[in-house]
Amino acid sequence: MDQIRSYFNRFLALNDSEWADFVACCHKEPVPKKEFILRQGEVCDYIAFIGEGIFRFYYVQEGEEHVTAFFFPGDFVTNYRSFLRGNPSEHYIESLKPSVIYKIYKNDLLALYDRHKNFERLGRFIAENLYLTVAGRLDSFLHDSPENRYQELVQRNSKLLQEVPQYMLASYLGIKPETLSRIRARK
Amino acid sequence: MDQIRSYFNRFLALNDSEWADFVACCHKEPVPKKEFILRQGEVCDYIAFIGEGIFRFYYVQEGEEHVTAFFFPGDFVTNYRSFLRGNPSEHYIESLKPSVIYKIYKNDLLALYDRHKNFERLGRFIAENLYLTVAGRLDSFLHDSPENRYQELVQRNSKLLQEVPQYMLASYLGIKPETLSRIRARK
DNA sequence: TGGCTTTATTGACTTTGGTCAATGAAAAAC
DNA sequence: GTTTTTCATTGACCAAAGTCAATAAAGCCA
């Protein structure tokens, strides 16, 4: 839980009563390897802080898996679209290793927003931050070659390379496993 | 200004005093065609609601323009990254037609956040919404062919096709003008 | 450990988008 | 309205990623 508090502190410091209120809403949950915490068609009614483990966020189209994102300890994992809009999820969220998460359900979170202005603000900061992350990824990928995209990834997030099977990485980069294999062989 | 209020109402209704407070922070500004409202290197210290006109958001790399986004009447336009972080902008924001914008400066907006919890919430909604837009675009870019991306764009946002020169559209889709021309000829 | 399944690599070939260059059309400037 | 510039189209060719298939390597489970 300390991890979560320090995550929050990067944006804004909660006082002790706000924090206690938050802690009361967290549900600790162990997740075995290769387990889905969200399936296509389900509505995502929680956000989950990752204490341990790795998750991938992907959808299936014409029999092919398309990986949109990976999540690591210290991240929040959720289908934010499904969570916000109440739509059924197009994505699966699956653990790649044995994991531990802390779930906060939507009703509880909305109540926290209502009760504490600081929480409302924290929610804004987190949404803003998510936006910046994705927008940066879009920009950097929109006009770069797959080769450059891979090289950038290696630089910025070498953790991914060791922790995640290559065929998932390829999908995350928007290319085929064979192509990624060839890019890696190129030097 | 009614446009802005109805934009807000899609997310949350402001009461009259909140609205009056907001209106007092808006600075109306006409913008001629092909005018920059933000240049590379400048810090973006405002968000601007578009009353009339079109803007494009792009950066220049190795002599080439890369279009990241277009903005239309009813949208907010800003370099959100530069605005939030106070970094110098990598992007230009340029009007494509004679336009009218309503600027809200950062200091004023932060003060609104402080004064009204509803405003804080509105800020969250807007950030969340921006995130969903970009995240969807990223997904479609990573896993769809340029051809499909174009077809999707035609369906979802036919306004773009009429209003924006084709070479800018091509850049927005991450392809060359010649390729877009050929995709269009394909049927 | 040995056998099975999944994942990664490599090769031959195809498809698609990029490049360069020429031409035509449309829009802007005078 | 005519000139000039910008933009869109088309063709020939090239480069890069995709496809299909075979093989090798790695991981997993009994």
From TrEMBL, chains A, B:
Gene3D superfamilies: Jelly Rolls (2.60.120.10). PROSITE patterns: CNMP_BINDING_3 (PS50042). Transmembrane segments: none annotated. Residues 10-112 form the Cyclic nucleotide-binding domain. InterPro entries: cNMP-bd_dom, cNMP-bd_dom_sf, RmlC-like_jellyroll. This is cAMP-binding protein. The lineage of its organism: Bacteria, Pseudomonadati, Bacteroidota, Cytophagia, Cytophagales.
